[in-house]
Amino acid sequence: MKKIWVDTETLGIDEKKYPLVQIAAIYGDMECNGYCVWEGETKCEAIALMTNDYVSKTEAVSLTGKNSNPPEKLALEFLSFLKQAREDNGGYRLTPAGHNVGFDIRHLDAFYERLGIQGAGQVFDYHTLDTMTLALTLKDMGLLAINQRLNLTALCERFGVKLENAHDAMADIKATAELYSKMTALIKRAGA
User: Fold this and answer.
1) How many CA atoms lie within 13 A of 159 on its CB side?
2) Beta pairing class for 68-69 and 129-130
3) CB neighbours (10 Å) of residue 40?
4) Residue in 112, 114, 37 with CA at minimum distance from that of residue 79
5) Phi, psi values for residue 6, rounded to 5°
């Protein structure tokens, strides 16, 4: 199965209220990573500030020091990346993979809807591969402690995956892909 690893960073949990500010994706040896700034956007949820270690709402909204683009430019660059990945996949839709990837898909859909552009929904398969769901399965199998926290940082610690710069979408997605490999290896060993 050809997977496309996807992660986003946002200014809040509710995709209808808070915009996406970073998209990262990996497909095979191809990578896409971009930031955007929303002109006049001042809404930011407190949990997003805390989760992403932003010092202030101003930093979160402006992404000072990052190579930020207008949202339309990021949207088109990401669609171009997806088109290239889909062509590499023989024209078949891509299976989005990530940690709690449903969150990212919802934010991507809202991002493109907000811009009035047909988005990733035209390229993604309706199936997803989610390491959060896989972690729940490992708990059910008795391969993870029942009290194991399931956030990306905790799972990376448990499986010995290095996660530098947590809550940067590209860093998170690279760690998630490695985490998936280690989790599936655990399942294989358990079945042997």
Assistant:
1) 28
2) unpaired
3) 6
4) 112
5) -135, 140
Banded model confidence at residue 119, pLDDT cuts 50, 70, 90: confident
Q: Per DSSP, what are the bridge partners of residue 33? A: 24
Q: Are strands 3-10 and 20-27 parallel, antiparallel or unpaired?
A: antiparallel
> 3-state class of 13 per DSSP?
coil
Q: What is the pLDDT of residue 38?
A: 80
Q: What is the pTM assigned to this prediction?
A: 0.86
pLDDT for residue 145 is more than 90: yes
Angle at 32 between CA 27 and CA 34, to 5 degrees: 155
Cα torsion 26, 36, 130, 136: sign = positive
The two three-digit tokens of residue 188, written as one number: 């294989």
154-159 long-range contacts (CB < 8 A, ≥24 apart) are 155/99, 155/131, 155/179, 159/183, 159/186
- Residues 6 or more apart in contact with residue 62 via CB below 8 angstroms: 37, 68
Under the banding of pLDDT at 50, 70 and 90, the label for residue 50 is low
Mean pLDDT calculated for residue range 44-68:
52
Confidence of residue 175 (pLDDT cuts 50, 70, 90): very high
66 CB burial (10 A radius; 0-12, 13-18, 19+): middle
Instruction: State the pLDDT at residue 67.
Output: 62
